[in-house]
Fold these 2 entries.
Entry 1:
Amino acid sequence: MRVSLQWLRELVSCDEPVQELAERLSIAGFEVEAIDDLASQAEGVVVGYVEDRQPHPDADRLSVCQLRVSPPGSDQPLLQVVCGAANVRAGIHVPVALVGAHLSAVDLTIQASELRGVASTGMICSLKELGLADSSDGIAVLDELLETVPPLGAPVAAALGLDDQVLELAITANRPDGLSMLGIAREVAALTGGQLSLPPAAPVIPAEPLPVEPASAAAIETGGLFSLTALTGVRVEPSPAWLQRRLERAGLRPINNVVDITNLVMLETGQPLHAFDQGRLAVLGGRPANAAADSVADPADLGLRSAHAAEAFEALDGSSHQLSPEALVVTYANQPIALAGVIGGAGTAVQPDTETLWLEAAMFSAEAVRRSARSVGLRTDASARFEKGLPLEVTLLAADRAVQLLQNLAGARVQGRWLHQRPHQPADPMRLRRDALHNLLGPVLVDGQEEDLAEGRIEQTLTALGCNLQADEEGWLVTVPPSRSMDLTREVDLIEEVARLVGYDHFASHLPDPIEPGGLEAGQQAERWLRQALCHAGLQETCAFSLVPAQGLVEHSPRLGLTNPLLTDYGHLRDSLLDELLLAARRNLQASMPGFWAFEIGRVFQIESDSLIERSELAGVLCGERRSELWSSAGKGRSPDYFEARGVLQQALATLKIPCEDRATSHHPLLHPGRAAELLVEGRVAGWFGQLHPERAEALDLPEATHLFQLALIPLLSAATRRNRWQPAFAPFATVPASERDLALVVPDSVTAAQLLSAIRKAGKPLLESAELIDRYQGSQVEAGNASQAFRLRYRDARRTLTESEVEQAHTKILGALQKQFGAARRS
């Protein structure tokens, strides 16, 4: 946003030097990226008078001019300047760049020189060389440009409007009011305490309902509002010099008075407007373009819809587009006449012969305008404002302001207005509690003393922003102006505005009381240890994007899509960590890597009962061989089988003493139906582990021995941080020997080792010290439907050495419990 300092000072009394103002704006959140001093573009350029012009003796297209750059009667000699412009002649006033002047617009420093043997001590300038818009091919003739020519030798900058300074502001997405001069003026008034002098409100034009089809009405209500104001008797001509200068300083090119007024109002209020030639619309609708009452454009033929596929559209800038259904178009007689909120069409643009207008003032949704602009690859001043979001209340005020200017500068007469808008309820006032403000911000420093911020300063700051305050016992009821309704929605927003505009550096610093040392919570520390344990087990940690395509590897419920994604392929929130891990495994194996063992801890997002649920999960992939363990297999690569891969995960979980049991499952679409298990933590399902389904492995070009796991993170951390596991307990070293026994059992193959171990530990108390599975066999030597499982049991009494009979008694007790609970038989 380019802000003219002269225009700004017309709206708010502010005499601060531009550098100080720029610093205050930057600290307050409107970063000033550059200060453009227009006077520097004409520094060293003065008014001169061409006393004589003669042709160059050695060049047909050059002229030798004698210039007077001092008042008549002075003893300063004439300057001799060689000029190549065709329109130079004796008897005219011109801008003359003296020797030593630097023209920053063309990066040229004037030096005394010779051109074809003739000395030249200066340069006669064109408007382009002074950084101004120039439609001519020659030098600037001041007699034609100015009503009154300044005295000879006077600086030419002020006469040509080069006596201003322009601030380049970076406007953040949450401050659409910063894209208007009125918004910046209110900000400066709040920062400096200056008095606002805003233009008076224009007369309100009454409106009648806009007769549109239901589909168009629905599209209008999505944005909020659409209005048309019919004007007749319009004179299209060049804009006044003051209007052209304001547009040029804002970086816009003057076109004609009608278009320039719509652009001026956009700069002033932030609301884009567009003017249609009503006669050309009538021709588009099949009516002759004449002044007859039944030949003008009919508002009933207007519409708002999505573009048809490959629908042709020619824009104002001369570009041609093949539209897609993502584009939202304004239509007349079902023909596109504008890309809504982006750019108008060339066929209905205002031309020099235009006499009747439709002035469009509308509010389109930010998402629709963003999609439209992106679909055609255009970004305009209008689309930039709509994309950031505009308040609905400003739209008709801007239209009234534009009509007032068109009446004053173009002789327009109002014929009528049509309006369609969705029902709109004014926002309720917000409560601002003084206690909440003082508690959150703390005291300010006044002459080195800490004091609560004065209520008068609070009221002055918010009033300058356009807020209406009504005091009560607790504080104030604050009515936010429409221009700030997008970002001031909560009490804390108002408090932040007060702090920002008063200045954070004015508030006293306070340390927490009492001061306590910081540190990680138990859950945070457990998560760090879990990451380290997984890395020690041989896995690498990865970090993938949270934004993913619409369709994953497994068909779950629909993924939650973003309203306005930057890229189509990254337009939805992920609901699983495994998709990217599997794709990363494939990429690594295709790059000739022998294996890919990795995990990720991150957030996933799912929709449940029309609400967004956000969870933390742990997921991992063990694919191929682990290169760091080739020494254990005599240098030969080998992929782990199901039990070895499961042991890798168990190794990591055991580091945090997380109890984890397996329960066979066969219903997960990603997993092998016979090599998958649900993982139970503290008796509840927390995730699963299994081998990738062969069909999935083939589709992803991954080896069959690819194993996956996925666990909810919260149950893991809760189990790890239980007091009996988290707090280490002292246990003395054993001073007596242990006695070990192996127990081989034949049990139904549906009985898991975890079930057997749980029963063994329960029945073996108090002498059983440990139990572990050492072998599992299922084959020809065991009856079909059964499996052999062997366990190693260790018995010990910390006070004395156990006798053989005591060990045998405990061993028999365990066997009896297993026989009773699972029908186990001891294998001989």
Entry 2:
Amino acid sequence: MKQLTLPVTGMTCANCVAAVERNLKKLDGVQTAVVNLSSERASVEFDPVKLGLADLITRVEYVGYGIATGEADLVIKRLADDNDARRLEGALRKLEGVLEATVTYTTEKARVKYVPTIVSQAEFRRTVAAAGFEALELGGDAQDAEAAAREREINTQRRLLITGLLFTVPLFALSMGRDFGLLPAFLYAPVQGMVGMRETQPWFNWLLLALALPVQFYVGWQYYIGAAKALRNRSANMDVLIAMGTSAAFFYSLPITFGWLSGHVYYETAAVIITLIKLGKFLEARAKGRTSEAIKKLMGLRAKTARVVRDGAELEVPVDDVRVGDVVLVRPGEKIAVDGAVIEGRSTVDESMLTGESLPVEKKPGDAVIGATLNKLGLLKFEATKVGRETALAQIIRLVEEAQASKAPIQKLADAVSAVFVPAVIVLATLTFLGWYFFGPALPINADINAFTRALVNMVAVLVIACPCAMGLATPTAVMVGTGKGAELGILFRTSEALERAGRVNVVVLDKTGTITKGQPAVTDVVTDGELPADELLWLAASVERGSEHPLGEAIWAEATRRGLALAEPQGFAAEAGHGVEAEVEGHRVAVGNLRMMTARGYALNGLQPAVERLQGEAKTAMLAAVDGTVRGVIAVADTVKDGSAEAIAELRRMGLRVVMLTGDNQRTADAIARQVGVDSVLAEVLPGDKAAHVKALQIADSRLRMANRKLQIANPKSQIRNRKSVVAMVGDGVNDAPALAQADVGLAIGTGTDVAMAAAAVTLISGDLRGVARAITLSRKTLRTIKQNLFWAFFYNVILIPAAALGYLNPMLAAGAMAFSSVFVVSNSLRLRGQRVGGW
């Protein structure tokens, strides 16, 4: 199966989305098709053996919608003849996403028409280079192509709105002046046989018609086109309602204008409805553009050029020309162009734009650097390891776009209602007309309207008040803003379902090693007998451990290095499995090992027994150091708690969440860590293969679970008694956490962990900071609350105002205004998420 994302143009409401989805799914070979109204994109998974990109585009266009495309102009060098041009043309056409490619030998130019969500102009340059030619020039970039298509659409709406206002404002003023007798004298004519009475000139209605015609059939023409497309696809959308409502008012007025009937004309009603809805659509389009600002901001982070070293010379090249293995130079204050590993230099790097962490991160040889981050202090030289679509920034953008294109489960209700909404409104409008015409109360004798006109006005009000757009936009706009906000905070939601589910989490399971703790043993205490200084004891022990490959030994010499101690070269190094190591350091025989080693050698503990017991009680590994046959001190090594872990767990508990720690460590070690960070429950001595089973047990709420919890020694078993299924989030970073992350309702992978863990998780915390869990859940809760507010407004609006219109309480023009601004309200409410604080950010 292959997956492609298509930028669709021309969609206005949820029914348009349903029409595109339904027709794409009809194609033989399409497995899934998900269309998002807010991002205006269709994500299609299909069998490439049965279908191609052209088939998908043809189907979308058949339904009556368009695909946003871009055009790139390249200046090509080294073309020898026309055969070269044809060969390059063929190579460009083979690229997925290229619709047309023309290479002209005489002008040395190539023009490529492409779908910007599938292929980028950087790939054109690489293809040209691979074919043996050189592309010197490019017009714009890939993102600009799609943005330009959207901008053209907004500009079209603006032009139509201005045209509508130019004709509607005078039309409305003349109509209201007529109704209230406020027109200038030359527009009136005396009524024959009735002294003192006057009426508008015979040509007045023709003037109103002349003003209404451009609005009805130029400004409002797209509603007729949209209605025709919808009916051709055997569906009904918002365009159908608008076309029906305005046409009823407009065409009813024509026979009166022609003198075939007597009565009141309603040209202003039709024109005002179209213009108000056009105003609403214009404001909605602008607001929708702002929902994707987070993606645009991420794309704007990309460096434009890079300084590479090739053949001993420094060259400044476009970032798209950087290749894996290139050595890249970054000066202070410059952006890091691509992902890589530092080979020379030291500096601090501001990674806040990707991780959400404000403190700069120190970088030294061997450390990884991320493209688009900012080098602060020193000169760095690094080797490029990931370029183009493989960089962390490109992956983040892809994940956010995929999440925005997916559908949240809560949207199913809106989709179900939207499917029958427009037909139901048409039926209700018909019943409204019939009810008022046949059963409406009798009109006064001197009324200026008749029963037919009254019934028609109320029917038009019902047609134009109904708003399926608000229902269609309620969920996707909030999801777009929520996932974008998450990306800014270093939180990546893989799907909108993950964004929704995270807000319902009530149990958080934390893997200990690498999640709560650093996952690397470190020296925590150095206790001496009082005769030898702590640094000297550490220097002797670290000099011995210099030849050791054991993690505990590495922790000791790493601490000595951190303290700036210059280690000596050990002589006669010997290791005793399960005991320790021994060597001679500058004339002293030094042994570093456990209690068994010292006992076996007959070394007295020299009064250090209480210190050993205390450290072991704190779940630390006590390493004894003996110098020339006398134990001189104890060095404690432990997997230390990450900075911020205790604060993060406290925040989770303040949010009303139950926090469980899961670890393969023994109960004593687990309990010691649990006391430090303040978790509610501990699951200790859990084998890697059993983690998923324990997560599954936490998801079930029945008596058997409570019995299992007691056996598993989970503290506070009463907290498990609940009448609903627990929604469990699992947070981990290792390969052995992947099954548990997949089993949990929401899996959160620490970004500093393995690729396997991140692939299994629905949410990735880029920074590796555990405080990101609380931020992710808070953001999810706020997004979910916004979605519910939007859906409430969309349903409440329609449930209250449609009956009001049917009962004759709403003028059609007021109804159109309310309808136009209902969707603007929904989008604006979603945009409020951008300014809300999430976990102090």
